[in-house]
Amino acid sequence: MRLARGWLANGLRLTIDARLRSKRRRAVNINFDLNDLQAFRAVVENQGFRRAAESIRITQSALSRRIEKLESALGVKLFERTTRKVSLTNVGRAFLPQVERLLDDLDLALLSIGDGGANRRGTLTVACVPSAAYYFLPHAIRSFHGQYPLMKIRLIDVSANEVSAAVAAGEADFGVSFTGNLAPEIEFSPLLEEHYVIACRRDHPLAVLDTVTWAQACEHDCITLDKSSGNRLVLDRALSGFQPGRNSVCEARHVTTVLGLVEAGLGIAVVPSIAMPISAHPILAKVRLVEPEVVRQMGVLKRRGRTLTPAALELEQRIRALPGTLPRD
Known about the structure:
Blueprint: H1 6-11, E1 13-20, E2 26-33, H2 34-46, H3 49-55, H4 60-74, E3 79-81, E4 86-88, H5 90-111, E5 122-128, H6 130-134, H7 137-147, E6 151-157, H8 160-168, E7 174-178, E8 186-201, E9 211-213, H9 214-217, E10 222-225, H10 230-238, E11 250-252, H11 255-263, E12 268-272, E13 284-290, E14 295-303, H12 310-320
Parallel strand pairs: 5-6, 5-7, 9-13, 10-11, 10-12
Antiparallel strand pairs: 1-2, 3-4, 7-14, 8-12, 8-13, 8-14
Helix pairs in contact: 2-3, 2-4, 2-5, 3-4, 7-12
């Protein structure tokens, strides 16, 4: 969500006093609508006019008029436009951080007055790897929904590479994923360190143990992740010198599918601990996996230099308050 209160967006006008230093100093008053700044940021985040217009629910021609009005008021060109690409000019790149700071500060001010969030509307988009979407994030989302019942949460549950791409493109406010090949414009903030564990039914022989070695685990029917999974890549790298004692009985692409097969009694599986229930589960149990221990670091992904909106910041704080997360520096 970018801006609440349509009356404010339509009625408020901004005045920027630009003081130009040359042989003579003179003050120039530049007037433009808050809507024009919103349109500017939407084009940047959506990397084009069509998707930007859809995101702020106006026609593409109306969006173009807002950008033209802003450029005319400022007396500069903010975008380079071709039939295939829209990119910021040097002036546009310098102007963007100021616009983002102004709009985010205004949104924060709105959050602190009036109804305190109970009637706050909008959409907040989070990209995450599927293992975080099943048992981990729902606890934070439920807490957030209790305070902001009219806010819509959109989850993009995709692979780690796609999480990074969604955040970089502005399709998601922030992401939850593990370290890897992140885009240069992405900032990674550690959230938790998680061990890979054995997932099994509570009536399975391994469920009563405190730890299980890889050699012990391979004595049982196993359900594995296929090679398209980011978790499979982490495990293959960590176990490059280990040869399993038997082949898997079933292979799936997503951790959530694997857990369903475990619940059905098909076998055990190696999964990241974040994919397991936070509290006691009537069917599933987890056992720490050792010799070797495999660990990965999960974190919050944000666009570098971009401040989260107040709503996104609130949800991030609730995620960081979940059990097992690392304290902020």
